[in-house]
Specification:
Layout: E1 12-17, H1 22-39, E2 44-45, H2 47-50, H3 57-66, E3 68-75, H4 85-98, E4 103-107, E5 126-127, H5 132-140
Parallel strand pairs: 1-2, 1-3, 3-4, 4-5
Helix pairs in contact: 3-4
């Protein structure tokens, strides 16, 4: 199976696109990584752990998205679509080119405080509480 943004064999099963806030990093470390890596044995790209120090963050994000089969967009009250616009557009553009959907929006928190980026509004999101089996099915398809 090929990855999201190119035709190479993926290095990661999933890339997690998130705000970069400490709260969201803790959420990923405490909730997502145990489910995805420990239980499901998936290879996850997580910025604070997998990006190469000394490289530009945006370049690392785009390169690692290219090496991933799926992208989880973790949408919390900390997610700022303007700050993450390039990454969002890259993911959506790749989906349009492939005519399939590799982005999985996950809404975590009060929906009144979480803004769905316009580019994701036509994609069915998962909402909290996350049904981990449904998320794994979406990642593996």
């Amino acid at each position: 199976m090929t990855d999201v943004l190119s035709r190479e064999t993926p290095v990661f099963d999933v890339f997690i696109l998130y705000s970069g806030s400490e709260e969201d990093e803790k959420l990923i470390t405490d909730k997502f990584l145990p489910q995805l890596e420990d239980k499901a044995e998936l290879k996850v790209c997580f910025a604070s752990r997998d990006y190469i120090p000394g490289h530009f963050e945006l370049k690392e994000a785009l390169n690692n998205m290219k090496k991933s089969r799926k992208i989880i967009a973790l949408l919390t009250e900390h997610f700022d679509e303007q700050v993450k616009a390039v990454e969002i557009n890259q993911a959506v553009d790749a989906d349009l080119a492939r005519q399939s959907c590799s982005v999985i929006p996950v809404v975590w928190g009060n929906p009144d405080h979480v803004k769905m980026p316009a580019q994701f509004k036509k994609i069915v999101p998962l909402r909290r509480p996350v049904d981990w089996d449904r998320l794994l099915t979406a990642i593996k398809e």
